[in-house]
Amino acid sequence: MEAYFWAFVVGGLICVVGQLLLDVGKLTPAHTVSTLVVAGAVLAGFDLYEPLIDFAGAGATVPITSFGNSLVHGAMAEAERTGIVGILTGIFEVTSAGISAAIIFSFLAALLFKSKG
């Protein structure tokens, strides 16, 4: 039960930061998402995101900051294996499934539903 509480708190705090960036920082949604992805990547670079995942579970893996974490882990793992070129290929290897799913499901939704605009 305690794990659910911390997942809710940490995920909520990440969302609060995003909302503050939108409302107080007057950032556009695209800038806000980019900032959160970069924040996740920076935290992963300093080995701080994995302990957050261990502590909060889905509260840290569901928000967009986790995407930045995935980018860094994919790049670093592939760079160790294949060298500097692995930085680029590792990013694509780790994130391609999620991006592909988003494209496929968006396409299917566009086929099934009519736009109101």
UniProtKB/TrEMBL annotation:
Alphabetized InterPro entries for the sequence: Spore_V_AE, SpoVA
Name this polypeptide is given: Stage V sporulation protein AE
Keyword Transmembrane (UniProt): yes
The UniProt record lists the keyword NADP: no
Transmembrane intervals: 6-22, 84-113
Keyword annotations of the record: Membrane, Transmembrane, Transmembrane helix
Any Pfam family: SpoVAC_SpoVAEB
